[in-house]
Amino acid sequence: MSAPQLLSWGQYPPFPQTPHPCHWREMLPETLDALVRAHGSTLPFGNGRSYGDSCLAASDRVMHLRHLDRFIQANWTTGILTAEAGVTLQEILALAIPHGWFLSVTPGTQLITLGGAIANDVHGKNHHVRGTFGRHVRRFGLLRSQEGRLVCSPQDNAELFAATIGGLGLTGLIEWAEIQLLPIRSSQIDGQVERFETLAEFFTLSDELDRRHEYGVAWIDCAASGRTTGRGVYMAGDFATEGALEVADPARLGIPLTPPISLINGLSLRAFNAVYWRKHPRTRQAQRLGYAPFFYPLDGIHQWNRLYGPKGFQQYQCLIPHGEAEPAIHALLSAIAASGTGSFLAVLKRCGTIASPGLLSFPAPGTTLALDFPQSERLDTYLFPRLDAIVREAGGRLYPAKDAHMRGEDFRHGYPAWERLEALRDPALNSRFWTRVTT
Ligand SMILES: Cc1cc2nc3c(=O)[nH]c(=O)nc-3n(C[C@H](O)[C@H](O)[C@H](O)COP(=O)(O)OP(=O)(O)OC[C@H]3O[C@@H](n4cnc5c(N)ncnc54)[C@H](O)[C@@H]3O)c2cc1C
């Protein structure tokens, strides 16, 4: 029986991918070669947690590398771990936490692969302290269609090392990677939570709390308008200094079927956002919680992406440079509130100044706003062109891992190193995203 076809997490754009499952590193050269001969090109696919078309092959034939899921080596004195690229962050945590180690950087889901984390150089709530995931990658094995197997590190094949971190799966197949973990004494988080009334207050809180805490992020009520534009809830925290080293249970709840229409609409959005904001304290409160609800609240519900119905959804994630951030984000939120659409979980986070090692990494000093929208034609014809104009004017850029609409011109302007990546791209690999934004 052939494996079911794959889509990206937003289930949009609707280009089903035929997966070619790869279980052993030994079979990669042969599979790559066969796919290129039959279809011209292919693309590595991790766990499909990218939202738009950056994980979709130009040929709609992907090499499914999630099955390369073996650990190779771990040193619990130094926290250096080597694993195949299909191992998920969840699997790494299940192994490492009992030994007192955590991921140095983690995104808002643990259901991604090591290869996917490197290829998008993902960032998390501690960007202001530790930069991106790629900063904690010591070396990796890369398979290229013409050169064969290479080991890349800041010292060896350094150009390919930089191009592959945030390289969107285009420079070769990452077969394995060696990463540095973060020491912890407890898997619990000592957090602080506080709601704020305006966007200006977000920036004041971020100034204060990011200096004192490893982790910081805000949820924004994207339906609020007028004087309340940008109100939200700030969450900061650190790993507790004492307590158990416990691995969280996997999610038990799930959305079993895709409903015939999106359950996310203007009415449910406004109601949820207002209630969620009110339920948080006006003044700062301490809370202790497990790492899973702190870092991965959405992983608690399997396949939550189905809530958006058969048309799927798009995420909009932009980064606005520091000087322009407050007015530009105010303008973005006003445009979103006026459009009557948006998401339950709009996220605002300040990125720090630690440089990313990748040629095309998304994070840079500035503030990033991310939110989901149920797919509709009006997004592409009305709302996104307005948002894009604000981002462009502010000198910002969009995140390829989340994107399904960005104009090629905006991509090339936002990522001027794209031509260096194109020069280093493996000709056997190409994505729908890359074709869309570079031609
Ligand atoms: C709920 C949720 C929260 C998220 N939060 C964040 C966040 O906070 N920060 C953030 O940065 N991102 C975030 N993301 C995005 C997600 O972390 C990235 O899209 C990630 O790259 C997905 O990894 P994946 O393993 O699912 O790979 P896929 O989505 O399948 O692929 C991603 C890219 O990696 C390439 N790739 C995969 N495996 C390999 C390999 N072995 N060799 C070479 N290339 C490979 C693919 O070609 C593709 O270009 C979030 C996503 C979700 C669903």
From TrEMBL:
The keyword Protein transport does not apply. Coiled coil: none annotated. PROSITE patterns: FAD_PCMH. Keywords: FAD, Flavoprotein. InterPro entries: FAD-bd_PCMH, FAD-bd_PCMH-like_sf, FAD-bd_PCMH_sub2, FAD_lactone_oxidase-like, Oxid_FAD_bind_N. GO terms for molecular function: FAD binding; oxidoreductase activity, acting on the CH-OH group of donors, oxygen as acceptor. It comes from the Bacteria. Residues 17-184 form the FAD-binding PCMH-type domain. This is FAD linked oxidase domain protein. It comes from Thiorhodococcus drewsii AZ1.
